[in-house]
Amino acid sequence: MTVSEEKIELKREILKQFLEKGFQITPDALNSILSNHEKDMSQFMLDFFEKLNKLPEKPIVITEELLNQHLTSSSQIESKDEELTEQEVVLETVRTTGKPKSKPMALEVEPEIKIKKDPSGKSTTTGVIEDFIKLFHSRFKKIEKMFLNRIDTRNTIPISGISSINRQKAFKTIGIVSSKRYTKQGNLILVIEDLESSVNVIIPSEDQNITRKGERILLDQVICVEGRALQSKNMVIAKDLIWPDLPMRPPNMAEIPISAAFISDIHVGSKEFLDKSFDKFISWLHADNEKQRELAGSIKYLIFAGDLVDGIGVYPRQEEDLIINNIYEQYSVISKFFEKVPDWIQVFIIPGNHDAVRNHLPQPAVPREFTETLYELPNVRMLGNPSLIEIHGINVLIHHGRSLLDAISHIPGLEMNKSADAMVELLRCRHVAPIWGDNTPISPEIEDFLVIDEIPDIYHCGHLHINAAGNYRGVKIINSGCFQEQTEYQRSQNINPTPGLVPIVNLQSQKLTLMDFYHT
Fold first, then answer.
1. Is the pLDDT of residue 282 over 90?
2. Cα distances (Å, whole numbers) of residue 10 to 13, 15, 42, 61
3. How confident is the model at residue 22 (pLDDT cuts 50, 70, 90)?
């Protein structure tokens, strides 16, 4: 066999290995492997596949840039598909010793912040039945507007108009799903309502495509139904089910390579709070670490998605799990940590279900009476749950994420350790907590503050204590894990948290880097 034939055969073998592992590879990347690793090919392939399997998001296509990341020794775990910007390449190659010789990049950058949505102080409910009605009217009108702005769903008819339409004519209508059940024959029946009327929607079991869609529908979400009316005045055979969903669009990017770090679920007061790991993270933000100085120095924003403290009386016999059993002292301790965050980093904090606010969504910011110190810090902003902020032109939706459990329990195929999939379902619903009366309590506000009516560029949740990341239609999805070791309850439920992992997103390139402060 000639040298040329040997190389062709080797190229085929490399391609075969990548395809068997579920990856594609670009010609440039393939040629780079052949040029640089012909002598150590077997070991290189083993090492490379091992690293790919550790990524929070596995790439579909292996590019030359991804290979270069593999060849660069680092304690960082980098995400898959984002190209390094020119600035990043420079920062990755600069190495100094001791303290920084220059100021962190983020120190030289002025913050660009807009608080676009914050439910704090906006509660108007009195708990009367009219408030419940107004809440669902608000939800319906907001999401109906999304459908009417789309080309494929703008020509809908109200439910009341179905009875007068030709039985052979297909139509589309919009409604809130008020009930969902199966018949003895296996057909799925939905009842949907608009502001004036309701109708039964039959999803025949023999149509597997639409049945699978029907299984993923959540109660109280707003959907569009395409179908035909039956002889019965109040029956529709569904032809398709359409979610409000997000439009396909490229991700937005900041003009400069500034970064944001995402954390949640610290749980100060718990015996399992990882104070050393969290303190290590806070210290790292000062950009004194030689190897990650450039990354730490690029962080301008720190975004926290709830559960600062473990709280008091959140669940039965909680006192057995606490090392601090005074709520004011818990907030005092966490305030001392945030006091040490560099003053050039802007911090946004929303509450979770363990914090000292009402459980019902939307939650206002943690009251000042519990944490005066946090309110006095000039670089900290206390917001409600959920909130929408804009930083350097990037919209970030911050939501604690308790309702992820609702989605996981009701949608087939969703798993606790893959929370990004559940977050996608909430984005598709355009609502952070569609189901009324399930795991997530919702306040009957006259306006539904939980509708996702402005598309985020980043959707950040916590609550599940399991780190996850993904991308959906131009939105970067982040679940930031926790700073709490596995609790007895989690152990009994076979929940394995991923503590101490901090996602960091470069707002210009949208590259995600995962830093580990637990195992190092």
1. yes
2. 5, 9, 11, 20
3. low
Instruction: Give the closest residue to 345 by CA, choosing from 298, 281, 295, 407.
Output: 298
Element (H, E) at 479: strand 475-479
What's phi and psi for 421, nearest 5 deg? -65, -40
Please, what is the angle between helix 327-339 and helix 275-284, to 10°? 30
Return the H-helix or E-strand segment holding 77. Answer: strand 77-78
Identify whether the C-beta of residue 152 lies closer than 8 Å to the C-beta of residue 172: no
Is residue 9 classed exposed, middle or buried when 0-12, 13-18 and 19+ CB atoms within 10 A define those classes? exposed
Q: How much is the average pLDDT of 474-501?
A: 91
The answer on pLDDT for 9 being more than 80 is no
Residue of 389, 304, 460, 347 lying closest to 113 (CA atoms): 389
Per-residue 3-state assignment (H helix, E strand, C coil) for 188-213: EEEEEECCCCEEEEEECCCCHHHHHH
User: Among 1-10, 130-139, 225-234, which range has the highest average pLDDT?
Assistant: 130-139
Burial of 190 (0-12, 13-18, 19+ CB in 10 A): buried
Query: At a CB cut-off of 8 Å and minimum separation 6, what does 459 contact?
Result: 396, 397, 399, 423, 427, 475, 476, 477, 478
**Which domains are seen in the chain, by residue range?**
3-71 (1.10.8), 116-121+257-516 (3.60.21.50), 129-242 (2.40.50.140)
Place of tokens 């029946």: 189
Say how many CA atoms lie within 13 Å of 241 toward its Cβ.
31
Cα–Cα distance measured from residue 263 to residue 352, given in angstroms and rounded to the nearest whole number: 12
Write the single-letter amino acid at 283: S
> Tell me: the pLDDT tens digits for 360-415?
999 999 999 999 999 999 999 999 999 999 999 999 999 999 999 999 999 999 99
What distances in angstroms separate CA 193 from CA 190, 232, 308, one per listed residue? 10, 17, 39
Task: List the structure tokens of 221.
Answer: 């979400």
Predicted confidence (pLDDT) per residue in 93-142, tens digit: 223 334 445 689 999 999 999 999 999 999 999 889 999 999 999 999 99
Neighbouring residues of 439: CB distance < 8 A, sequence distance ≥ 6: 402, 403, 405, 406, 409
Q: CA 505, CA 478: separation in Å to the nearest integer?
A: 10
User: Considering the entire predicted model, what is its pTM?
Assistant: 0.80
Return the structure tokens found at 457: 């560029």
Encode burial over 245-274: b for 16+ CB neighbours within 10 A, e otherwise. bbeeeeebbbebbbbbbbbbbbbbbbebbb
Give residues with Cβ within 8 angstroms of 304, minimum separation 6.
Answer: 263, 264, 266, 347, 348, 349, 350, 398
**Tens digit of pLDDT for each residue in 297-322?**
999 999 999 999 999 988 888 888 89
Tokens 């309110």 found at: 375
* Residue 442 three-state SS: strand
